[in-house]
Write a structure and sequence with these properties.
Blueprint (H helix, E strand, L loop, with lengths): L42 H11 L23 H6 L30 E3 L2 E3 L7 H5 L2 H12 L5 E3 L6 H11 L4 E6 L1 H5 L1 H12 L2 E6 L2 E5 L27 E2 L16 H7 L2 E2 L3 H4 L2 H11 L16 E2 L27 H12 L5 E3 L6 H10 L5 E6 L8 H12 L2 E5 L3 E5 L7 H31 L14 H11 L5 H45 L16 H13 L4 E3 L6 H11 L4 E6 L4 H15 L2 E8 L2 E7 L18 H36 L1
Parallel strand pairs: 3-4, 9-10, 10-11, 14-15
Antiparallel strand pairs: 1-2, 4-6, 5-6, 7-8, 11-13, 12-13, 15-17, 16-17
Helix pairs in contact: 16-20
Amino acid sequence: GRNRAPPAPSRGGAPWMQKWAPADPSAPAPAPAPSPGHAPSTSIDRIVHRLRNLGLGTDDDEPSSPADAPLDGRERLGDLLDRSWARPDRQFAASGLDEAVLPWERDRESDGEEVDGVKRKRVRAPSLAELTMDDVELRRLRGMGMTLKDRITVPKAGVTQAITEKIHDAWRKSELVRLKFHEDLANDMKTAHELVERRTGGLIIWRAGSVMVVYRGSNYTRPLKSQPFDGTSSPRKGEDSTLFIPDGSSTAENDNQGKDLTAQHDNAPILDLHNTEDMTEEELEFNQMLDELGPRFVDWWGTGILPVDADLLPQTIPGYKAPFRVLPTGMRTSLTNSELTNLRKLARNLPCHFALGRNRNHQGLAAAIVKLWEKSLVVKIAVKRGIQNTNNKLMSDEIKNLTGGTLLLRNKYYIVIYRGKDFLPTSVAAALAEREELTKDIQNLEEQRRSISIEHSSEDGFDGHALVGTLAEFQEAQARWGRNVTSKEQQEMKEASFRSEKEKLFRRLEHKLSIAQAKIHRAGKLLSKIEASMILANPSDDREMITAEERSVFRRIGLKMKAYLPVGIRGVFDGVIENMHLHWKHREVVKLITKQKTLAFVEETARLLEYESGGILVAIERVPKGHALIFYRGKNYRRPINIRPRNLLTKAKALKRAVAMQRHEVSSLMLGCHVKELTSFCFSLNS
């Protein structure tokens, strides 16, 4: 009943829309809302209210709401929405369509909004302090918490053992302590709420933003510093290993601090939170598996099962070796993209196995990881927070080298390593290693027997050396079955050998010559293809003339100019002409410097620039940087509409042309060298 009723549908609309029609005035009036006096106020009343809503009440109990009535088939959508789980702290004022709250309308509601004259508030789940303490005492403690100035700063590492000791030290002087969170826990205060209540045993009476106020409880007793605690139970336990909640219902001050602990256990409400009883079979098996690997990390910032503290494992193990691995036949060592994705998804939902803060010396951790891999495909390692100079790259590299696994994920929070397709359990690896050592021993024994038999065989008189493959064997075979070769046959054999060598050399020179010709052909083909798009401008018939005095003046001006245009290996292209016109916009003379060493090439470049730009070549001078080309724009100069000519090459094509010309030149030189070598070879054959 916290949203407005929708308007009546039009006639002829869909049947399902008629379900949202306003309530029929002739229908019976809804059940009156329960008065505030009958609302559940104590814990027992809330439990009874929940049982009645679930239909677990006795036969004598009356139905608590009209929602308990059986369905008659005439219900609207709002009536069906009402038949859901009823919270014990929720007040129902009316039934029907007005109580149906659609999901997209929940954000529009505000606390204290009045609908149809009934004030409704957004429901919030009560905290442990609100369930166990009186309202008067809770208001008093919250008022005291507002005046607290001293606070304890919780660092990035979370609620560690040191922070817990500071909280207990503050509770010696005051019953309240104020906490300020930073970094990750400040963004997840729900997890911080659970961690503080679980590790300190106190009650959080107020929380806003990243600040909370924790109450120690009326039956508070400081635990011993040597008393260990884990992540699933409080340090204070009774003789039956059960956690008792601090009694905050009494308004009196804690005057019984020195009383016996047994009496407090008798008076405190007991809550059974034993580890093995609240865990599922999978969690219990996972917890037992971690117990076999090493001590737990008690300062774990998350919830759930505590990981193993890898920093407490031995740094070095005498005689440690990487595990023995054998890849099955026909299987690849690398992972495919789909396999990598599936393994990362698997590791995302797993709790952390280890918590690591050390960069080096991980032999103990490597041994524990190998033991864990016998039951799990991947190992998930959390990088400890709040520790300086942690480097996840150094950690992952050393662990990978020690274990031989495959790295799946590495960031500043987690390291995930896959055991690999060639991983073998310890028992199987030991059996295979033993079998391999036995095979090597058998091979060594066979080699020793073979060498002994060769040493004792002295029939041929070669001091124990084998006759096979030696010169003595050839000479013996030649003496038995060979024949004497005459001098004429020896001369023919030498000539045939010399002729075959010359033929091989001639074929090699021919091959080099053919390769050089092919390169020249390719370079020329590419050069002609590029130059096809380059259309040079013809010289103008009506050229402007300058006198010798003007030429001398413009030459001196150009040589004194500091600004110049470089002409590189690309030569003349459209960008050079464009820059010349941009220079002529502010000055009459432009100077270009080219690094070409041959004067004929420099003069050809100067003539091309003169034709394309329309200027007048003043002089070509030798300067330390190369050759300077000085151009005068002319007395009748007019800037063209397109200062970048379309008939020249672009910058990219000019570079390709320069490279093609260089290849053509180099190939021509190589071709000349091969032709000379082939000519000298043919001349030596004829001689």
